Amino acid sequence: MQLTLWTYEGPPHIGAMRIATAMRGLHYVLHAPQGDTYADLLFTMIERRDRRPPVTYTTFQARDLGGDTAELFKTAAREAYERFQPQAMIVGASCTAELIQDDPGGLTAALNLPVPVVALELPAYQRKENWGAAETFYQLVRALCMPRVPPPGAKPERVPGQRARCNVLGPTALGFRHRDDLREVTDLLGRIGVDINVIAPLNATPADLQRLGDADFNVVLYPEVAMPAAQWLLRSFGQPVVKTVPIGVGATREFIAEVAALAGVDAQPLLDDPRSRSTWYAKSVDSTYLTGKRVFVFGDATHAIAAARVAAKELGFQVVGIGTYSREFARDVREAAKLYGCEALITDDYLDVEARVAELQPEMVLGTQMERHIAKRLGIACAVISAPMHVQDFPARHSPQMGFEGANVLFDTWVHPLMMGLEEHLLTMFRGDFEFHDGAAPSHLGSAKAAMAAQPVASQPAASAPPAGSAVPAEPRAAPPVTVAQAAMPSGEALVLRWAAEAEKELHKIPFFVRGKARRNTERYAADRGVATITVETLYDAKAHFSR
Questions:
Q1: Pick from 201, 238, 412, 445: CA 20 to 30 A from residue 320's CA?
Q2: Smallest Cα–Cα separation from 312: which of 506, 12, 304?
């Protein structure tokens, strides 16, 4: 595993913990040292869960390595069952415990516990969190459903007139808006005329998983987590898979049509939901100036692909880059990149992402918590669309990403940072105006202004006041650093461009939502003329040139 300051995904046992924490009646016994128990914080502090994950750690220490760590695990597993009385258990090892090569599955089997025990083989140094979640869910589904797999060709047909039933697969603990997405999709399926058999893993029990085979088809909301299990259910029970993820108005309509076809119902009246406002809002007067804004998209594959489609097809943005840290879905992201004429970035190194953002200079970034920091450092608007995320991305309000209401949320979340950028620029422009000082009252509240004028001014210590007639010295401001860029001259040769400090300072007076375009045009202008150092004069010459 790559060691870095930030990571997009944790080790695979964190993924297993997301499944265990999402479910009820399931307990996870993890062979791990004391240092690997930090994961509790992810759920209690970031997701604000009111209880810790259902996980028992062996918490072996250095002194235990000279003894019998296997016996330590058996004791922990036995005591976990006796204390929590779960319907089923999963057992495994963390990345550190993997090195001592104990066998959690074999050790637990020797205990002869009266509940199903699923042993997890999670190669911590080869795989990561999402894969760990998918593998854990797949192993659970396979182990608990295997006794009920019918003989080939023996799947019972639905009784005529009986409503279709589906399973909803994929939502987990610590998932990006999974709680809210599930509420929206559940409502949507009910309006289509489809009953829900089981929702898993979120809030499901092991007994619920045993009923997965009773459904007519499966809805996969998050392929990173649920697709391996859904494919096994397809092979074993003949259940078709709804693969359309309903993020955005267009995808939601396709989702409705796909579900309706499998359920044998007419869902035409639902295709134009009156609650969907994002399409009209994107065409409204105060949004048209956003058309053509350059956006860079990065996140898990599901959300990155969906976000790029919404940005390009529904909001009129230009997708200049797309990428993912989910290497298992690299092919899907590369196919999406072809639709927008850009190159896909497949990496789990945030420094590579930062370099690509700096290179493309978009007006907006749609990404993870990592990209939020990157965009802030580069002065670019940003909206979070995917895990990993911080506590602010688990809002108390209903804030889905899926369905028609989810499309409304996307519009608000993505467009407002750009519009607030305009407001911030205007405030900066007029900061020196006498009406915009801190003590000014709102112009439409004249009585408030008079009241403020009548208030006594607090006296200041004599020593703090400057002598009469003297000027207050301004605090020195550091000059902006010299920026280096590279561009191609008409001859094809590479030219190293340097931004003079004064030119960089002047560039930052331009609103951030058009600053990237101004930088690109200026660098192109300088490269075409072989100007190696961009000065203030070069900046304004480029402006005049492209204004013709």
A1: 412
A2: 304
Backbone phi, psi, residue 450, to 5°? -65, -40
Q: Nearest 5 degrees, angle CA 110-CA 115-CA 121?
A: 65
- Type and span of the H or E element at 156: none
Stretch(es) of the chain classified as CATH 3.40.50.1980 = 12-147, 149-270, 278-425
Neighbours of 21 (CB within 10 A): 25
CA distance 36 to 92: 13
Q: Tell me how far apart the alpha carbons of residues 519 and 507 are, in angstroms, rounded to a whole number.
A: 7
Closest CA to 386 of 114, 174, 144, 73: 174
CATH class of segment(s) 149-270: alpha beta
Q: 278-425 belongs to which CATH class?
A: alpha beta
Pick the CATH number of 483-547 from 3.10.310.10, 3.40.1280.10, 3.50.70.10, 1.10.8.550: 1.10.8.550
Q: Which residue has the tokens 């760590």?
A: 69
Average pLDDT for runs of 10 along the chain of length 548: 67 94 96 77 84 88 67 91 96 81 85 94 89 97 95 72 93 94 96 96 97 96 97 96 96 96 90 79 70 94 97 94 96 97 95 94 94 90 92 88 95 80 48 49 45 45 44 46 64 80 85 75 89 90 82
Strand 318-324 vs strand 241-242: parallel, antiparallel, or unpaired?
Answer: unpaired
Phi, psi of 321, deg, nearest 5: -170, 150
The DSSP bridge pattern shows strands 217-220 and 241-242 to be parallel
Domain 12-147: CATH superfamily, name plus number = Nitrogenase molybdenum iron protein domain (3.40.50.1980)
26-31, strands of its sheet edge to edge: 55-57, 26-31, 88-93, 117-119
From CA 292, how far away is CA 315, in angstroms rounded? 9
Question: Residue 503: how many CB atoms within 10 A of its CB?
Answer: 22
* Coil/strand/helix, residue 112: coil
The pLDDT assigned to 188 comes to 95
| H or E segment to which residue 493 belongs | none
Domain with CATH 1.10.8.550 in the chain: 483-547
Burial (CB count <10 Å: 0-12, 13-18, 19+), residue 536: middle
Q: What is the pLDDT of residue 491?
A: 66
Question: What is the spatial distance between Cα 416 and Cα 411, in angstroms, rounded to a whole number?
Answer: 8
For residues 326 and 342, give the distance between their C-alpha atoms in angstroms, rounded to a whole number.
18
DSSP state of 42: I
Q: Which two tokens stand for residue 57?
A: 């750690």
- Which segments of 134-246 are extended strands (E)? 165-169, 195-200, 217-220, 241-242
The first and second tokens of residue 62, run together, are 């250095």
Provide the annotated active-site residues.
286
Determine the distance from the C-alpha atom of residue 330 to the mean position of all C-alpha atoms in its chain, rounded to a whole number.
Answer: 17
Q: Are 368 and 352 in contact (CB under 8 A)?
A: no
